[in-house]
Amino acid sequence: MYDPRMPRTLVFTLATVVLFSSSLVGIPRADPVMDSEPTFRPVTNVKQTMEWILDPAVDVIWDSAGFIITAEGERDLSPTTDERWSEVRNSAATVAEAGNLLMMPGRAAGPDWIAYARALVTAGETAITAAQAQDADALFDAGGEVYIACRSCHEQFLIPIEEARNAK
User: Fold this and answer.
1) Does the global pTM surpass 0.90?
2) Quick check: 101 and 121 in contact, CB under 8 A?
């Protein structure tokens, strides 16, 4: 016997099954590990982070910007190949991310420290943009921003530590 409500009921039932099953397949579910605050486990201390991660990356930027003038003449340090510009970009990304590493819990030493680390992130981003554009002048300027961020932080945090060591 034909029931005129049957097609409507069948469509509703099928729609419910499809919606329910799509919630189980292909749609990310809550992950208790990902829903909690991330647990950071620093591998390097601040000094090692500076020496092993930040300094080598900064050196790539500084060694790729500006000119060297000697008795033999002037030498442009700007990258001349796509590969070298990529190396500079990668180092600039490392500089920016190192700024984030310096803001991690257990490393950050207060609001001034955070401000210097953020300046480092911004300078790294500027250097990334310069490298992607293969803009030697912008890279030189970005290197200056990196220098200012580093030097400002060192004047406040590194020099007092060294003075305390020398006073012993």
Assistant:
1) no
2) no
